[in-house]
Amino acid sequence: MGLLQQTLNNITDLDENAVKRAWNKIDNLTKPIGSLGRLEEIAVQIAGITGKVFPKINNKNIIIMCADNGVIEENVTNCPKEVTQIVTNNFTKDITGVYVLSKFAHSDITVVDIGVDYEFNNPKIINKKIAYGTKNMTKESAMTREQAIRAIEVGIETVDKLVEEGVDMLGTGEMGVGNTTTSAAVLSVLCDLDPEITVGKGSGITSEQLMCKRNAIKKAIKINNPNKEDVIDVLSKVGGLDIAGLCGCFLGAAKNRVSIVIDGFIASAAALCAYRLNPLCQNYMFASHLSAEPAAVHMLQEIGLESMLNLKMRLGEGSGCPLAFNVIEAAIYTMENMGTFQQANINGDEYIDIRKDQ
To answer: pTM for this structure?
Structure first.
């Protein structure tokens, strides 16, 4: 049995006992029941994931999967291909958005070359290269089925190693010119959505390029005929190595019972793939922000998640994850440190249970 199947078999549900204990404590805090809304739900979810009521998060890490995409030959982006390798290298410096935000949130970064068309000489970039980018999906499958599975397993292995080293909260990021095209293609197939709905302007393309992008996805779907019931078939035919790698990260986090934060549109595509492979993965996911990509809302709706923030961000890289880390840690800290009705000398029955009205 391969690593992917072993991982799928070892994903379990939340710890219901810990969930009940967390709700019991929260409902006895000095506040109207449910009045801290999503913060309460976040803290309870963390309890269910870890089996501990309001544990401290000690070690956060954002995994950034980097890969090139052959579909850029179809005029779907205004960024030259070289941007992938330049930005991948820059992730190891203190100049990128995700680096600065991660530093603010006291998080580390793990940069993985899973398919960049370049040979790095940088010890801070982990070489897990499966191919030098995918092929042009408008002409043939982006990759083989075996490559897609291997990419998923790279994600699983990356999470396994980080968890073994003590990481207890993960984020997801990516870099790859053209990957909003592959993400939109994956969404179009898995959810039977027209590219007119799923395709946005990504990093800021022209109206002409937007037409090219939509047409490229339509052509890729027609030529490759991916099976929407087979996630790996979809990934291999119209996906990307970065998406497949991040899909593995979500699966690995669920297997290891560690929370994992979704960044934006591309990471959401990976999360959707993981969810379709094993719906229990959703229990371990948190959506950081609602990407400015028009179809981002469809991604989260399909998974059954709601973003914590809506800041009109579309940077990618994992830049939304540090912000979500802060919200999650604030939720845990608040529930752990608020006083109870007894400590406040208040009769809890005097508060209205607002959940009864919902």
So the answer is: 0.95
